[in-house]
């Protein structure tokens, strides 16, 4: 080994604590890149191959009733590679263990063989046998309710209770995300998918020789809009409700959204770590070079060139980076696998394709080394530039000035140690700024991460308490007349009811169209509150339509403009209605109308699809038991249960990664403060030892060193909070999807928690340094020349 | 310089009583015996010069007197305080209350002005002088608002002396106070120490390599191999102003 490399290793060993702190920060950055990108790419690959293996369809359409031979016509549409007709229907379930109604979407399976499209992945058991009352239950529901093969389940088929045996439990690419109609969130206990043999469905719903659901797979290169248009044309006379592609398929849209959010995090967070690591490298290398001036001069006097000297110090940063990268790769790969597994469970993929993408690894590596070189460059260049004679001289004594505090005569009552702190900060403002900024980065990161918890709270508050005032929404199996509501109103515990009519529709403005469910409510509704963008409340107008601001944005519509509405069921009527108001809403694409006006458009006045109600909390349990026996009722969601489901979903989804990042934020704070403290200690060891000799206690000496760090950390907190607020907004905007907007709310306590974690981390690193003050060698320091 | 060995006549009260003092340093497997049994009493108000080659143990001795180091064995008493058995905290208070230190490399705090460097000590001392008065003693009143980087070496050392005496210490310990200075500047510094010893009666111990400086002490202790080889009493002291080297 060359002597210079030996020196490098010794230098590294000499600053091992700091090198380790830097390597840890680099490792975090690299690990996050590998972990999140690895998870995201693996999940995408898994999803694609899941879709492919189980032949997930490209275009979907529901209709009222079409004879089976129409299926063949679907197959003849140009661009259609494969097609599958089915019967689907919502049905209420009777689950004895459950104190409230539950429902399922029944989906037919061919009596013989596998479906051509949208196949199911059996997790246990087998497919139903022909001629037996057997079914396959979706895994989410089976697990939530504890059902498995052999268990009995009562289903209300077209109003008649029929007992089935669970033959198997399965997953389906079509139902990665399962949500009951009219509900916002998945609730596995009360809603699931049941696959039943076609012959049973035909008989129960009077669809012998017919179908009410068709799925299509596109030929390579086929145009989805073309196929949708032709399919609509073909199915219109059979009560088709407008075909839609994968983008509008709820489960797929939800999956896309989650993967997109994962990507946003993967893009935004790692650069912060790498920037901090670069800064730390710069700090440590600058310091090292300052203490090495004489050695540099000596090496140059021996004939070492600028390039060799520069390379020597650059190597230092590359070795530290390599250590960090190695640690980051190992951690990133295993954490990535673990995280992907968590998401696999969350999404219920039947298998997992996890592989480390070499491109991601290479990119993480390149990023880390780029950051290292950027951080080291200025310090390395300075070392290379030192003239030998100048380098052999000790650096000129540090020139201090009176600080602003002195000039303003504020310092008169400050003790000398406090003066030392202030002057030291003012003497190296850039370094102080750097330390503060690095610490602020940690605060920023934590504020941003904790923001998501605040946002979920705010979402719950706004959606379930301010926007929706009903205690329960009772979904009906199929549209009913108004008297269904009066029947429900007589049940115990119901204090008030209002009708809800939910109608699938397509809204168009120019070339922009959106497919969604339009909600019809009573204009004087007391159970649904609307706010405009400025937060003012308004009531549902009797004329026109109210659009959520997201929907209005997508359709480029403003208040007073007209929107074309096409009802996607029944007679498929079209109408032009004025936009009466824009409502500020966070969740889903929503539009509201007076229920009577909406019913007129459907051609079936007076119908309703759900009832929203105020419930006496004392009698809620009794009400739920009674509702279980009402055949017309498909689902009941109560506010409490919906809020729980929403939180669980959030906790499983986006929040999986957040705990990681919190730990990582603490590592950043530790790395920055520890390095700053160590550098300060090595630069000022002589000064501090002098103080000890002069009779200052260890505590008083620690105050001079750690007081400065405390000042810098305290400066960092508000900066970090402001930056965190900004980054949270950025993340919020980046993570906004078609279905979902995260409200921007940051509680004061969130800043407090973020600041608390960073301070705790800073105190920990201060304690590590205080231990060194404890061992400060007074004698050695006094004997050496400055 | 007189060569007579005799008890000091100027002072009678013993400030330091040192007996069989030994100090051993261990670094890894290497053991260095810095002091191998020093016996010496130091008297109130005297100026004692410690002479000796590098490694003879004089700095170790001074450090033990000053409470920044501890002996491995032996006795070291300051009045009725046992320096050997003092806790870390007690040693800190001992330095704070009784000892003034002057070092070869001044050890001023670069971020504090001359006056503030002195104030650093007066703020924690029991009966200090005004920092301005301490600086006047060393003739630096006019330069007291300068930072160390704005002062010459001699001026910096005089600030260090002012800092050492501002607490009105009973003992002033100087380790090579002129080691980094040229002769005329060194003389000015020594005059300051001489004046303090004479006017304030501060017991002063000065380490030096420089034999010329020995002439200004009441006594001269020569160190060799971790022991006091001999103690000489100067029958006639030379004023610092007359010293040249």
Short description:
Chain A is of the alpha+beta class. The model of chain A has no long low-confidence stretch (mean pLDDT 85).
Defining traits:
heterodimer, A: 786 residues, alpha+beta, six-stranded mixed beta barrel, 22 strands, B: 245 residues, alpha/beta, six-stranded mixed beta sheet, four-stranded antiparallel beta sheet, 6 helices, 10 strands, 27% helix, disordered N terminus
Question: What does this molecule look like?
Answer:
The complex is a heterodimer of chains A (about 775) and B (about 240). Chain A is of the alpha+beta class and about 775 residues long. Chain A is built from 23 helices and 22 strands. In chain A, helix 7 runs parallel beside helix 10, helix 7 (about 250-290) runs antiparallel to helix 14 (about 430-465) and helix 21 (about 700-735) packs antiparallel against helix 22 (about 750-775). Chain A is elongated and about 100 Å long. Chain B is of the alpha/beta class and about 240 residues long. Chain B is about 25% helix and about 30% strand. Chain B is built from six helices and ten strands. Chain B has helices spanning about 60-65, 90-100, 115-120, 130-135, 155-165, 185-200, and strands at about 15-25, 30-45, 45-50, 75-80, 80, 100, 170-175, 205-210, 220-225, 225-235. In chain B, strand 4 and strand 5 (about 80) form a beta hairpin. In chain B, helix 4 crosses helix 5. The chains are: A alpha+beta (about 775), B alpha/beta (about 240).
